[in-house]
Design brief:
Blueprint: E1 2-9, H1 21-27, E2 36-42, E3 47-53, E4 67-68, E5 74-82, H2 85-93, H3 104-115, H4 117-120, E6 126-134, E7 139-144, E8 153-157, E9 160-164, H5 167-171, H6 182-191, E10 204-206, E11 211-216, H7 225-231, E12 233-234, H8 238-247, H9 254-272, E13 279-282, H10 287-298, E14 305-311, H11 319-329, E15 332-338, H12 340-354, H13 363-374, E16 379-381, H14 386-390, H15 394-401, H16 403-407, H17 410-421, H18 425-434, H19 439-457, H20 462-470, H21 495-521, E17 526-528, H22 534-540, H23 556-562, H24 582-587, H25 591-597, H26 600-606, H27 611-623, H28 629-644, E18 660-663, H29 664-667
Parallel strand pairs: 2-18, 13-14, 13-16, 14-15, 16-17
Antiparallel strand pairs: 1-3, 1-9, 2-3, 4-5, 5-6, 6-7, 7-11, 8-9, 8-10, 11-12
Amino acid sequence: MCGIAGIFLDPKIADPRQFASITAMTATLYHRGPDGGGTWIDAESGVSLGHRRLSIVDLSDAGQQPMLSHDKSLVMTFNGEVYNFSELRLKLEQIGHQFRGHSDSEVILAAFESFGFEASLPQFSGMFALGVWDRNRRVLHLARDRMGKKPLYIAVVRGGIAFASELKAILAYRGFEPRINHSAITTVLQYGFIPDHCCIWENVFKLPPGASLSISADALRSTIVSALRQEVRRWWRLDEIARDGQRLSAATDQENLENELDQLLRAAVQQRMKADVPFGVFLSGGIDSTMIAAMMQSQSEQPVRSFTIGFAESGYDEAHHASQIARHLGTEHTEFRVTPKEALAIIPEIAHAWDEPFADESQIPTLLLSRLARQHVTVALSGDGGDECFGGYSRHIMAARLAPLFRLPPKIRHLALSALRTLDSTSWERFFRNLPLSEGARTLLVADNLRKLEQVLSAANRGHIYQRLMTSGCGWQSTPAELIGDDNIPDLPDIAASLIYCDMASYLVADILVKLDRATMATGLEARSPFLDHNVVEFAWRLPTNLKVRRGQGKWLLRQVLRRYVPEYLFERPKQGFNVPIGGWLRGPLRDWAQGLLDMNRIRDDGLLDLRNVQASWQEHLTGRHDQSRYLWSVLMVQSWLDAHRSVGAAPPAPEPAQVKYHAEAAS
């Protein structure tokens, strides 16, 4: 796991001094790769590449980047892990390749050299973002893994582009002119995160998951973001996987499906346990992390290191469940309990770590958990992706139960809504109590009562249904910003499958994986997610919805497999999630901090937020009339981000060891 950066300019108009910015860009990524760094500069061709290294496989200098291919025609900067590199290496050795070390980076370059760039990408199983300069064809290739586990930002600058793992590296390029994208602020306030198709800075975009972009030197003279987006090619498409998988939905009997899922997950876990450094697992006590921990321990001769975060507030604390599971599995368990004091201490770091405004409050325990784990291990496996693959969210359960309503023609749906509007509050609560829903789904519906159900059932299409389910309470006062266009949702057999797809295509990439990547990388920890192995994802899309959601329970098939490893009483309980008692904290220990950021003059001067709405929400929350914590946390994260970026580029990079520098003329 590492951090990458690069500059590609039209050499006919570029100032040679601009390429020296690669050193400053790379320095900002020190936290992603504290074990070493390097740059490769060829000003004559208009290219400079940078790399920060977190050594996981092949700790020797043979794994140093930027790396040249055997014939020196390709130069690569690579972030991530390709787990099947040993198998690819054998394949390449059979056709004559010889290797200096045993890193995956060297194997990736050899594959590009032998099979070509586009033909190689589908052969990689793992997580990655990379840049490859083809010195003969004068083309820069960029690529991102199937599920978008590793980030890649691309900025249009005068005369070319700059790219990096994080926006702070883009800001360090002296030719970049930062301008806030106001629509991105809107999405944060409504959803708590910025969708992957959007960015906080204008003239910057994120390479989509499963995509590549190849840019020639001749294409740099009139580069604009819209033109670059049109050149993006998808080498793996989630929409096709979902559509084709549901069309050929598994007809095998349940036991065979359980066996297949068991084998796929065991293989994915086993691959991700390969490392030349200590590894462990994040164990929350929920179904997903318990499954990963159980499969790790079943394949390890030594106790696996497990880590969990707890809270003093009992309603939010799952640490005791994690502890019970750890004892059953025999892991070496470490637990840390978060107090408001620790939360307040870490809040100033959030804006720097996430780069864009990001308001998933579980970022606090995730960052603290990463910091805890890094004291003992360099790699941690996580259960992220289980909900998206196997239907674990309350909205999936709700959609499965209310599927007949969603199938009604719009006119009939309108009549049903009219009838619902006649219910008084008592009848309304009785209506929800009598629905065959899990407690989580019922809570989700009752939270916004008739207003939210009206908005969802009156939505014009599946994309709008998803947006209205995802937006915070205050977001209803405006039209929800686009999370995923309905044209991008494949034709799936039921509304629950559509919501699962939307979560995997949007929420997973822009919230869950951003949270995991930034929190772990801020501490120099590599996180690996077996549920997001592409073989597991493709298997999950071959399952009909009734094998994911059944009898008011999500992740039904996954639960059957987990029973093979852990007694049912240890994991069968209401889904809790990685929730944080942020509502109570804002009324108590975090109140003064929040009050300072919600100062009327500050909000008015910035001109980005609705002052009346913010103040009204704050008062409603303080008095207890309505829990506005989700919306307020979004506002506070926007304000905190604005404070951190009022003088962009003013903060010096973290101290680092001397970089290893490669120059094209010396390397050729």
